[in-house]
Amino acid sequence: MDSYTSWFTTVQSLLSKLEKERWDWTRRGAQEFRKGFLRLKETGRKKGRVLIGIYGPTQVGKTTLILKLLGLREEVIIPFSKALRGRRRYGNSATVTSTLYQPSCDDLFYVFRPDGTKEICSSLEELETWMGIIRDEVERGHVKDTRPLTIQISKAFFQQDELVRRKQTIEVLDLPGDDSREEREVDHVDRCLEEYLPHCSMCIVMENASQVVALSQIKREHVSDWMWLPHQFTIVLSKALSSASVKDQIRSGKLSSASELQGFFSGELYRHVEGTAAKAKVYPLDFGDTWAQIKQSDPELYDIASPWMDELFLRLAEDLSSIYTPEYEIKALKNMESLLQKKKKENYERLSAKKNDDKAELEGLSRSLKALCIKIENQTEKIKRVNEVEEMIEGLSFQQPPSGYIPGWTERSGKERSADSLKSDFYYALGQLEKEYRTAVNLWNLEVHVLMDEYALPFSPIDFQFAEKTVHFDADYVISKYFRQSSFNRDLDSCSDALEEASVETLQKTNRAIKRQKQAMKKSFRQKISSIEMSIALLEESRETLERRIESCEKSITKIELAIEKARIEWEHDIQRSKELNLYLKAAFVNEIKAIQDKLFSKQTSPLEKWAYHQYWNIITADAERITEDGSVTSQQGI
Question: Looking at the domain assignment, is residue 601 inside a domain?
Answer without folding.
Answer: yes
